[in-house]
Write a structure and sequence with these properties.
Radius of gyration: 18 Å
Number of domains: 2
Number of strands: 14
Distance between the termini: 9 Å
CATH class of the largest domain: Alpha Beta
Largest sheet: 6 strands, mixed
Bound molecules: arginine
Length: about 290
Amino acid sequence: MKKKWGFLTVCLLLTTVVLAACGQNNNNSGAASSADTGSGNASTAPASTDTGASGGTLIVGMSADFPPYEFHIKGSDGNDQIVGFDVDIANEIAKDMNKTVEIKDMQFSSLLNELSSGRVDLVISGLSPTKERAEQVDLSNVYYKAEQAVVVQSDDKDKYATMESLEGKAIGVQTGSIQEEVAKGIKGAKLTSLGKISDIVMQLKSGRVDAAIIEGPVADSYVKNVQGLAITAAKPVTEDDGYVIGVKKGNTDLLNQVNATLDRLQQANMIDQFVTKANELADQQSQ
Ligand code: ARG
């Protein structure tokens, strides 16, 4: 059961390389086929020419390095797929709108700009609500909550058991994330900000950073599936522990639709079921 994510890590790295090579606005064709709404005929037109909510496709931006929220797996047909509970939520919103989902996998730090410029209709990516983000885009109601975690090499688990113990250390975080802000607040910390969490995990494994600050459920998933990592007792504190969906500023109809679907899912306890299923999928991933 060791290093189950060897293959996945390679896939993620390849995706990152491909995205970097092609520019972040390009569609990831693997991602486009990942929606499990069945039709499989996601739009191939550039999203920028799509009028957004008016077509048959709901374009959802996410950074698919974030199990159990959104991550790559090798599907039963051998093809790369993006799955996770954010993907399930995206499919439910699309279903309520009679649309199919097209996923665009990109760097987390690009997502809100893509939304503002209309190249994606929604951002569903483990997005935490902040004041700055609420100024840039509209944010849905909270659909899930989780805490933050500090991930280190297993041998360092006790050494970094408090936030103070991270002072002056090399810390890996995702570019543009709230974790980056947390790390900036640690005295003397040397930040390594990277586009994809899989890259941060590589840096941690190779000892180029001492610790990484990652969402609790995501940290759990990486620690379970990548050998030699552990979560410490240190508890990073953030402004808000909830997750929301981003909609282009002023797109009230879509925002209302998103909130209506979230209400429906919450009432039927479906989000918890999606989380359980996503965790199982992440754990099942084999080399
Ligand atoms: N919750 C954090 C934030 O909103 C990190 C989210 C990262 N999401 C991802 N799919 N990598 O800043």
